[in-house]
Design goal:
With 472 residues, the chain is an alpha/beta fold. It is 56% helix and 10% strand. It has 3 domains: 174 residues, NAD(P)-binding Rossmann-like Domain (Rossmann fold, 3-Layer(aba) Sandwich), CATH 3.40.50.720; 245 residues, N-(1-d-carboxylethyl)-l-norvaline Dehydrogenase, domain 2; 29 residues, no CATH class. Bound molecules: NADPH dihydro-nicotinamide-adenine-dinucleotide phosphate. Keywords: Gluconate utilization, NADP, Oxidoreductase, Pentose shunt.
């Protein structure tokens, strides 16, 4: 008998937590996993949490599908990539017209679009859903970015709304657009997350090496900043990470962790999407590059041997400057990320609602912050303009960009790497100047390639008379 409101395949960290969250909200959920061991573990966990009455574990795929009420909503939470395609193929013979697959992993949005297009003529709905918040979010309330088949979204909407994080009672879930829209927005969320994390790390570098602060002192600063305009999950956890002590040695844990950052791909996807659409997203690109440089530890050690230790010239930047620099950098980074979203929306006809996206990121996800509440309010008033020209943020930027300038200048003199914050400053300076220097670029392009240039009042596709440099 079909008694489950929804089904879920993939009982690793994310899937099992999501399933428990759904069961806890009173919905009956059928679960399945490729290997049976994880099903057994899930059954034991559900029992421990008193949720076994709301969970139906099935070891055979056909039995699992049959256990879900029609029209079926089946969540897939397996490893991103080929496993998702494999899972779709295995499910297809068991599904009926009107059923939907809801893929909640970190999939590349173009893959999601392809799967959506593949399933549409078969009458099977496909939802590509970005879920942010990690393990904790999946269990107690993630931010949920939905894209794909709108009709089938309405079938799953009550369940996904019930499990989503809440900000002032408002659920952090929204249907954003057709095809790959949900996964695209999740990708840019992760790109912005990369930027936030990198800028925080750069400021920590100045505290540690420029101001001579130990991790405990740094932790106190982040704790204080979390009460101000930077209030956010990432600032909060930074305080905890800096305060943590390694039990065996009694030393600050952060000082023992190797300075090599990992990445799984969503930052790179964000940077590629931005470049492909011609939208500058230098803060995200900088953050991705910084992780790549960090991973080349051996090369960095060798290069320091050649150039000597960085001077770390004494800096007169204050903690207040660092706080404001972070805020200014963050505004630029979000301006870039949202500009990428706006452009993708235009190119794909997604009609992505920027204010809603800022709203559903206010709780549950990794970049949740007070700042996003301000952003959603600003976008509600100001349409889709670049954040740098939205009045509420203009005021903050005018107040904070001098500090960003001071910090980046001190970093240059003191030999502190600041890939992300300096990229943010350069973007700001490029964006806010009426007269740039691309006139020279156009002259060069015309010189070697006859690409033409424009002179106001005389027309475009004009050419210069250039001396020949051949044979010189
Ligand atoms: P993993 O990405 O580690 O994937 C493991 C799950 O995928 C297991 O259930 C595994 O089954 C299943 N699987 C792998 N290959 C296949 C296959 N060919 N056919 C069927 N099932 C397969 O799990 P996570 O829970 O960490 O993540 C799930 C998704 O959520 C991923 O896309 C991830 O990127 C995304 N995500 C993860 C977050 C996190 O914090 N971990 C945060 C946000 C999103 P088996 O047990 O049989 O091996």
């Amino acid at each position: 008998m079909s008694t489950a409101d929804i089904g879920l395949i993939g009982l690793a960290v994310m899937g099992s937590n999501l399933a428990l969250n759904i069961a806890e909200k009173g919905y009956t959920i059928a679960v399945h996993n490729r290997s049976s061991g994880r099903i057994d573990e899930f059954v034991a966990e559900a029992k421990k949490e008193g949720l076994d009455g709301k969970t139906i574990a099935k070891y055979e795929l056909a039995d699992f599908v049959a256990a879900v009420k029609r029209p079926r909503s089946i969540i897939i939470m397996v490893k991103a990539g080929q496993p998702v395609d494999d899972m779709i193929e295995q499910l297809l013979p068991h599904l009926e017209q009107g059923d939907a697959i809801i893929e909640c992993g970190n999939s590349l949005f173009t893959d999601t679009q392809r799967r959506f297009d593949y399933l549409k003529p078969k009458g099977i709905g496909y939802l590509g859903v970005g879920v942010s918040g990690g393990e904790e979010g999946a269990r107690h309330g993630p931010s949920i970015m939905v894209g794909g088949s709108k009709a089938q979204w309405h079938n799953a909407e009550p369940v996904l709304t019930a499990i989503a994080a809440k900000f002032n009672g408002e659920p952090c879930v929204a249907y954003l657009g057709e095809g790959g829209a949900g996964h695209f927005v999740k990708t840019i969320h992760n790109g912005i997350e990369y930027g936030d994390m990198q800028m925080i790390a750069e400021v920590y570098g100045v505290m540690r090496d420029g101001l001579g602060m130990n991790p405990t002192a740094c932790a106190e600063v982040f704790k204080a900043w979390n009460k101000g305009p930077l209030n956010s999950y990432l600032i909060e956890i930074t305080g905890h990470v800096l305060a943590a002590v390694d039990e065996p040695t009694g030393k600050p844990l952060v000082e023992l962790i190797l300075d090599k950052a990992g990445q799984k791909g969503t930052g790179v996807w964000s940077a590629i999407a931005a470049q492909q659409m011609g939208v500058p997203a230098t803060a995200i690109e900088g953050a991705v590059a910084a992780r790549s440089i960090s991973s080349r530890k051996d090369e960095r050690v060798a290069a320091e041997g050649i150039y000597g230790k960085p001077s770390r010239a004494k800096t007169d930047v204050t903690l207040a400057d660092l706080e404001k620099a972070l805020l200014a950098g963050k505004i630029v980074s979000y301006a870039q990320g949202f500009a990428v979203i706006a452009k993708a929306s235009e190119e794909n006809g997604w009609n992505l609602p920027l204010a809603t996206i800022a709203k559903i990121w206010r709780a549950g996800c990794i970049i949740r912050s007070r700042f996003l509440d301000q952003m959603s309010a600003a976008y509600e008033k100001g349409g889709n303009a670049n954040l740098l020209v939205v009045p509420d943020f203009v005021a903050i930027m005018k107040d904070s960009h001098p500090s960003l300038r001071k910090v980046v200048a001190a970093a240059a003199v003191g030999e502190f790497p600041m890939i992300c914050l300096s990229a943010a400053l350069s973007y700001f300076d490029s964006y806010r100047q009426a007269q740039g220097t691309a006139n020279l670029i156009q002259g060069q392009r015309d010189f070697f390639g006859a690409h033409g240039f424009e002179i106001v009042g005389r027309g475009s596709d004009l050419h210069g008379t250039w001396p020949s440099t051949l044979g010189k």
